[in-house]
Amino acid sequence: MKKTGAQIICESLLAEGVEVLFGLPGGSILPFYDTLSQYPQLRHILVRHEQCAAHAADAYARVTGKVGVCVATSGPGATNLVTGIANAHLDSVPIVAITGQVARPFIGKDAFQEIDITGITLPITKHSYLVHDAAELASIIKEAFYIARSGRPGPVLIDVPRDVQLEQVEYVPPGEVNLPGYKVPTRGHPTQLKNAARLINEAQRPLIIAGHGVIISGASEELKKLAETAQVPVITTLLGLGGFPGNHVLNYGMAGMHGTGYANRAIDNADLIVAIGIRFDDRLTGKISAFAPHAKIIHIDLDPAEIGKNVRVDVPIVGDVKVVLEAMLEMIEPREHLEWLRQLEDWRRQHPIEPAREGSGLLPQYVIRQIYEATGGDAIIVTGVGQHQMWTAQHYVFHEPGTFVSSGGLGTMGFGLPAAMGAKVGRPDRTVWLIDGDGSFQMTIQELATLVQDKIAIKIAIMNNGYLGMVRQWQELFHGKRYIATPLSCPDFVKVAEAYCIPGLRVTRREEVSGAIAQAMAYHGPFLISFAVEPEENVFPMVPPGASVAEFIEHPQKEVSVWPRQNTP
Amino acid sequence: MATTKHTLVAIVRDRPGVLNRMVSLFRRRGFNIDSIVVGHSEEPEMSRVTIVVNGSAAMVEQVRKQLDKLVDVVRISDITGENITVRELALVKVKASSGTRSEILEIADIFRANIVDVASDSLTIEVTGDEDKIDSMLKLLRSYGIKEIARTGRVAMVRGTIRVPSQVEGRKKRMI
Ligand SMILES: Cc1ncc(C[n+]2csc(CCOP(=O)(O)OP(=O)(O)O)c2C)c(N)n1
Question: A435 CB less than 6 Å from ligand 1?
Fold first, then answer.
């Protein structure tokens, strides 16, 4: 049967099990949008800026395990996607971006809204296509989804010229994907598995660092079995949060720049590190030459290019984390490391994650703990980027994979609101809380309209400190308190919400916090709370840039200023 | 870190953008590519790419792994240090007068080069060999006045029955 290119795109999306698209139309993608009327099964969510379509697709993928899809027109629509695609690339999230392109005869002529988007996104996509022929569309889309979700997941872009969308061709459902150069390693090398098991069985002070790879591979159960059988304490990376239950006795929190003191001490003293699905990012390792000075390192990762990239590895295992752990479990013997655990408990007592202090103003940490209490850890928590993101990682307890959605690798301010949107669309059954900074929130604030138009009932908590807080913290600690370009004039967020027909509350005192959270959760639609938190509260512990993880700064008992700050613009 | 010349050989799918993707991985790290040669391979719809690049062994290995991950790169290996045959072809247009012509012909002869074009005031010589051989011949010709040089860059093949890159790749893997 003959179909248009646009129809073939829709058929192919359905064949891939796609239910939702996030996007915004324009001339070059219009034939595709026009065809959507024939495919009511495909729900389209209209964003207010294409960056948010990519972030929403990204978060949708993280919480559902499916491939997220975003759509944009050529030129500015496509370039607006770039930050979102880069974000998915750095956090290994499977998304497929479909962009319109000018008609084939106009390509390469600087036609109106023509941009070489496959060229621009070349270093931030796992793969990309410029479609020259509608007859290729079905197989390209099938291939794109396969590449996005298999192996180490990542973004794939498909650029479709307008006339290809209109072209009528015979529709033939695609055959099997045939990619001779595309390797997906699965099981680790048997000798290395044996070596790893031996090291684990022999270690005195073993430590597991669990990363995003554990969650992507769905290996939480296997990780738990390994930790429990060999009695190995587990710490996580930022994106590893939720991969190992936060309330498990063997969980020692997040490590790295703003990790717990005890997790960082553990790294510094361990004699064996089992790194699972992590990439030894500099925010985790601190000064690389001083990282884990006493430890042998076993590194399990799907991506061979990650092995040995940043640290020397004693036992490299290239394979899917779940498959590798399954195989390794057969060789792991039950062990006890009571002395090591006692040591860790001592460190936990010596370096507690600062509990919310009494008697001071409204602390963001306190608010986050209250959100945890109110949700029982059952919600999906999405963040922006900055101090509030780190406080969320430190003070909320994540029990399950897929409950913490945050921009790790790229650290994209503005990720929060569109990501919360995508998460809620993917998991309408779950409560979704966005914990955002006043700076981050203002980068994509326009998506409040999308929440209303598409009835996306997320709960928003803005940690309003009147600063680009994380940068201000660096200025305070490392730049002589010269607060250049960080004081932030904010609108009245509750009034802004109101303008979008979203109810909201302003909270300035700690006694009001739990009531406001309860009110937000009881409301059937989106709800916003602006918390006027301590403006100059800092995130501690902190490993200063360039220092080793053992050299973290603890909370200095400084006088905190009062709200509102004098220099509020 | 000590840098050395590395020869990478890849079999890639004949797709638009594949070279761009490969080169981009070098550019991003500030590598200068000495030469890159692309041509058909023994397999249909597959090209063979030979890349010569200067870098530390660790850096080059990191890029090789990244290159190997590209969807359209079927296989790739670093054949530096293997027992390889290396060839490059050069076309050299050199000034020649009636007085110098026979001397130039003699030099060409020593290097087993061919004269492919003769004009009233110049000769065009075609020479094949490794880079050293070509450099030596150019050095000798320089005094006559070189008008133009076209060099292909290096192609390479491992000696013996081993088929590169897959087999070398296999051996490397086993060594990890
Ligand atoms: C798009 C973008 N621009 C700049 C930065 C640098 N940056 C990192 S954190 C931060 C401040 C974030 O401020 P806010 O969202 O208010 O959160 P807070 O740190 O106050 O909790 C900035 C500017 C960034 N991460 N992303």
Answer: no
